[in-house]
Design a protein that fits this description.
single chain; 504 residues; mainly alpha; two-stranded antiparallel sheet
């Protein structure tokens, strides 16, 4: 009797909540269609806006960035510095490379992140809002640690320690802006694991917290250890993927995670899949510029050619494995995520691979293992660990990032025994010479440790912040149109529970 009474009371409360949700859905649709009085709609918007902590912090931080840029940075004094803006030995100047990398971030990643059927606004617009914020913060942080580490030349690896440090003299030039893009990319890689599950405020906090640790990793790996990572394979992609996975692991309490599985809305529509694959095409075309941006002058052509070859082979392997393990048909998810893995994996060693076959081998390994990770590993973590990596950042960026880190270790061990590479002194490319392999491995391990520990601390703190009422829907943060598909999972789940109780 007591159990029946409790069940009846639970059903009553569920029905009341469902009615409230239905009333809210109707009210919002009427507002979109203009059926509500304008005064009522305006009052509702003002009431919500007054409590919007995200906008307040977003604005205050932006004012802080303006002050910091005004007081701690200065523009490059001469535009005739050809070591920075292009020489006959470089394939392209920095401004063109900036355009390519910016397109890769804002268009490529934005479109890839818009694949979910009800999260397209967040995928594209959210990428823009968060990336421009992260970019400014990354320029300042990287410039600060650049000053702390010493004077760095064009390839971003040769250090002259002991140089005078001027904390208020961060140089603003094209390389600094490109470093800002690298930092924003690292942030978006991390946020890909919790896309659609974190509030805008939580994402903003992730940016403010993550970028300084990204800078610390830059200081240790790129400046002090002199690890070669011109394409950001370890420093950007592997670091961001590990950070994001740690966020997902520790951000959700175990008691709440037990009921989670693969969410219905974490799936595409036909048209959203088309936009997402267009983003992949942008990434594929522009990735050589990402790897070549900080390559030494005389190695840019090798970097571009090796990157293209690696991308070609990883794409072929993706189609092969997708068709072999998906019932004889191609899976759009595999093509969207795994085809670019060759570009990530080759980012550490593209400048000092002496045989194109090596680049193609790296592309084959990256394409194969990344595809297998999406085909099998994602299902394993959904089923047994109850973790849902929204975009699959660990498979898309983490797996090829780790492979690329190891490729850098083995390639450096082989090439480091030589005195020259294509007539160029080995010290111009591998600052540590024969010992470079050890430093490459140390940088990989340090990136893993810094990313995981810093993200775990932040995730535990974020547990106490507000949670989204519904996952994977633009309704949480965006003014959606009248024909937007609303979220009825709560109603469906409650009905399913009632059916199960009735059968018992």
């Amino acid at each position: 009797m007591l159990y029946d009474a409790l069940e009846s009371r639970r059903k009553l409360w569920d029905s009341i909540q469902i009615q409230k949700d239905d009333d809210e859905v109707v009210r919002r649709k009427m507002g979109r269609l203009g059926a509500l009085p304008e005064s009522h709609a305006i009052k509702t918007q003002r009431k919500v806006a007054k409590r919007d902590l995200f906008s307040f912090i977003y604005l205050i931080c932006q004012i802080g960035f303006v002050i910091l840029f005004a007081t701690t940075t200065q523009l490059q004094g001469s535009l005739n510095n050809y070591s920075l803006y292009g020489t006959p030995n470089r394939a392209e100047n920095f401004y063109s490379l900036y355009i390519h990398i910016a397109l890769l971030l804002f268009v490529g990643i934005g479109l890839v992140y818009s694949y979910m059927r009800k999260l397209s606004f967040t995928g594209i617009g959210g990428t823009l809002a968060i990336s421009v914020f992260a970019m400014q913060w990354a320029i300042l942080v990287q410039g600060f640690f650049h000053q702390a580490g010493g004077a760095v030349n064009i390839d971003g690896t040769k250090i002259s320690l002991g140089a005078a440090v001027n904390w208020g003299n961060i140089q603003l030039d094209f390389p600094a802006v490109i470093w800002g893009l690298f930092g924003a990319i690292a942030v978006m890689v991390a946020l890909g694991t919790i896309l659609g599950k974190a509030t805008s405020l939580q994402q903003l906090i992730v940016v403010l917290w993550m970028i300084p640790f990204w800078g610390v990793n830059y200081l240790i790996g790129n400046l002090l250890l002199e690890a070669v990572d011109m394409g950001g394979t370890v420093h950007t992609f592997f670091f961001g993927a590990v950070f994001g996975v740690a966020l997902e692991i520790f951000m959700t309490k175990k008691s709440l995670r037990k009921g989670e599985g693969h969410h219905h809305d974490n799936s595409p529509r036909y048209d959203s899949d088309i936009f997402s694959i267009l983003g992949t095409v942008f990434l594929w075309i522009l990735w050589p510029s990402l790897n070549a941006a900080f390559a030494p002058d005389t190695t840019m052509y090798r970097v571009i050619v090796n990157t293209v070859l690696s991308l070609c082979v990883s794409t072929v392997m993706t189609f092969v494995f997708s068709r072999a393990f998906r019932g004889g048909k191609f899976m759009m998810l595999d093509v969207q995520r795994a085809t670019i893995s060759g570009g990530i994996g080759i980012g550490t060693c593209a400048a000092y691979l002496v045989n194109p076959g090596g680049a193609m081998a790296i592309g084959a390994v990256c394409g194969s293992l990344t595809s297998l990770s999406f085909i099998f590993f994602q299902n394993v973590i959904h089923r047994f660990i109850r973790l849902e990596d929204s975009i699959g950042s660990m498979s898309m960026f983490g797996v090829p990032g780790f492979i690329g880190g190891l490729a850098g270790v083995f390639s450096a061990a082989i090439v480091g025994q030589s005195d020259v590479i294509y007539g160029q002194p080995i010290s111009d490319i591998l600052p540590r010479g024969a010992k470079q392999a050890g430093y490459q491995f140390a940088a990989l391990a340090i990136a893993l440790i810094i990313a995981f520990i810093s993200a775990a601390i932040l995730a535990i703190l974020l547990r106490f912040s507000a949670r989204l009422p519904h996952h994977y829907t633009d309704e949480n943060d965006w003014d959606t149109p009248a024909d937007f598909e609303t979220n009825y999972e709560r109603v469906e789940e409650s009905a399913q529970k009632d059916v199960k109780i009735g059968k018992k």
